[in-house]
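## retry 2 of 3
previous attempt timed out at serialization; input unchanged, resubmitting
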Amino acid sequence: MRIDLHTHSTASDGTDTPAELVLGAAAAGLDVIALTDHDTVAGYAEAIAALPAGLTLVTGAELSCRLDGVGMHMLAYLFDPEEPELSRERELVRDDRTPRAQTMVGKLQALGVDVTWEQVARIAGEGSVGRPHIATALVELGVVPTVSDAFTPDWLADGGRAYAQKHELDPFDAIRLVKAAGGVTVFAHPAAVKRGECVPEAAIAELAAAGLDGIEVDHMDHDTDTRARLRGLAADLGLLTTGSSDYHGSRKTCRLGEYTTDPEIYGEITRRATGAFPVPGAGGRAR
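## retry succeeded, writing output
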């Protein structure tokens, strides 16, 4: 089985619609794909309606969190999307995305960048606006060559010249809320140093003690040595280890299925989840 547990669609900051995403996953030879848009479940219905036979969909989300001033992302799988407390927190994060993005546009303009809110809104479309949309605007303007190059201290990285904070969950609260909604939590790309400051490994131990289920190890932002270190840390803490593409369509260079999760780990995730169940494809068609 080929299992990719971290992807994004146009419901947040990917460039593929949810329907295009699942059809692309099948074409890439995947057996299981997780839809983990940022702080939203808006893509579920379209993805399920288009899900081709032979592909299983894991519903999820990537939750925006912050610990001691350091940003981090928490992957949540197979939770009840209607659970009210978790739904309310996701809504708070989403509601803060637009004013935060507008603040960053203002900071860029003050730095002499000819970016406009209208340009960023056009790029975001119906998705939940975020830094990748602003980064895409910078690419369009020729300020940086790639989206990744916008995530530096000069521009949009945490603490960067054009950075602005938004409402984010405490990760301990995120673990509690996802557990209460019957879901499973995995710390996304925990050592992605290219993105900025990372949560220290001592804090990962505290998160594990609070109920964190796993950490994402095999990821494009982790080199070989980092993966080995994280795998050892996970073994010491009794955490599951996942691998995934963090696919964003054409917005990033990673490919669907570039990194994958061991089927036994996937099986353990599904065994732990009680809020929702993986959805097997029934040969649906995009509308």
